[in-house]
Amino acid sequence: MPITLNLAYPFNGRWLTQNSPANRVPSHGTTLYASTFAIDFVPVDDSGRTAPLTLASLVYPEPAARFPGFGRSVLAPVDGIIVALHDSEPDHAAFRGLPSIRYALTQARRAAAGWLALAGNHVMIRTHNGSVVALCHLQHHSVRVRTGQRVDAGQLLAGCGNTGNSTEPHLHLQAISGVDVMSASALSITFPGGLPRNGTIIDAQ
Q1: HSE (side-chain half, CA atoms, 13 Å) at 97
Q2: β-pairing, 80-86 with 150-151?
Q3: For residue range 159-181, what is the model confidence (pLDDT) as tens digits?
Q4: Pick from 103, 125, 149, 164: CA 20 to 30 A from residue 109's CA?
């Protein structure tokens, strides 16, 4: 029987759900790198919004630090052991409007470059049953754990960033059967109250 991992939300505060497997599978339009059931969470402000959209936003890339969730704490969603991490990728600009279209045209190049080009800075946690949870697009030099360290659900891992295949600061989460994303199978996930749909704002405490 396929495994479904029951996870805690890996953050506090208000985050917007995007690319949820509750809406479609594969959630990101591809099964590449065992991402079939991956989900994204975008930090938002108290009004449920990300950075204000301006005319300049439609034409020019924006500093990642302009977005309300940049650097916001990312927490462990499950108890386990840190089995892999990467922390050295710089945060790049955010892209909306025309810049996002130009960025999308380079998607195939990033996919061909491999897992690191897509995930950016990331942490991978092995759970008690051997499955692995990956948390991606983390802020440059923000990881606060080390390989081999045991962590508890709710423990600080890193800051939310804009590394890898990311158009604005957000958190990408996926569960897989093992640490090698090239050979692993995607695992389904759920959270307290069920799997949120696209557009749902999670207010985690």
Answers
A1: 11
A2: antiparallel
A3: 999 999 999 999 999 999 999 99
A4: 125
User: Cβ of 119: how many Cβ atoms within 10 Å?
Assistant: 26
* Closest by Cα among 15, 138, 131, 124 to 74: 138
Does residue 43 have a cis peptide bond before it, meaning omega lies within 30 degrees of 0? no
Pair of tokens at residue 37 = 């059931």
3-state secondary structure of 29: coil
At 82, is the secondary structure helix, strand, or coil? Answer: strand
- The reported pLDDT for the residue numbered 110 is 85
Tokens representing residue 144 in the block: 């606060």
Query: pTM higher than 0.85, yes or no?
Result: yes
Phi and psi dihedrals of 175, rounded to 5? -115, 140
